[in-house]
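User: What would this chain look like folded?
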Amino acid sequence: MPPLVTRALVAVLLAGALTGCLPTGSDEVAERVAAITAGLAAGVPRLHPEVLGTLPHDPTAWTEGLELDGGVLYESTGLVGRSQLRELDPDTGRLRSARPLPTDLYGEGITVLGPRVWQLTYRDGVALDWGAGPAPTRRLPWTGEGWGLCHTGDGRVVASDGTDRLRLLSGTDLAPLGTLAVRIAGRPLTGLNELECTPDGVWANVYETDWLVRIDPTSGAVTSAVDATGLLPADQRGGTDVLNGIAAIPGTDEFLLTGKFWPTLFRVRFVA
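Assistant: Here's the prediction, encoded as structure tokens.
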């Protein structure tokens, strides 16, 4: 292994150990890419993001969740001691407000359901219920890891935990309702991370890759895969981390995409 690769790998491992969302082994990431490749060979449509516009994004934001609701772009950021629930202007990217999490918690995925915002934490064993105040109104117990979150529009919530299964939950109290095994061409697809529920399916970032997938919420089958390689230009990649953050723009076929420490929000449409 060349010295530069060794140093990069050590830096990633140290960062993961200090900040959570530990990087997976290269074999696991390779298996995810292999599963997607097999799916494409079996006929799963391959899409790419067509960039329609860009907005500035805070390059200090370790993005864990992104959702657009009621004219507000909600963003959850992670890192212990730095996690926040943010409200952004979706037209300019400007930060409107930021509510810090308790300093011992690591923020993860979010979803807006009526008057509340649900927010997961990574390995802290709790989910947060936010109202309009400066602090969470409730802490609910959470088993296992918390990664991504979205809601289906019928009162249910969908959560990911980095495995090949999505959790189906009550939107009222996050009580478990079941699980959904995600498969692409019959193969399990792990690393499901940030989620976005739309009428066309559940979109998910595949962790530590440049791929997003659309999942049938009934069968768990991957119905399309988006290759976002090169979305963030090479001259902006320095000091950034993985693609993570997808928000559907209501009433359109467009999305906002960003990543951890990315300086840009991209407004895109997924096209063949």
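Residues 144 and 223 are 27 Å apart (CA to CA). If you want, I can go into more detail on any region.
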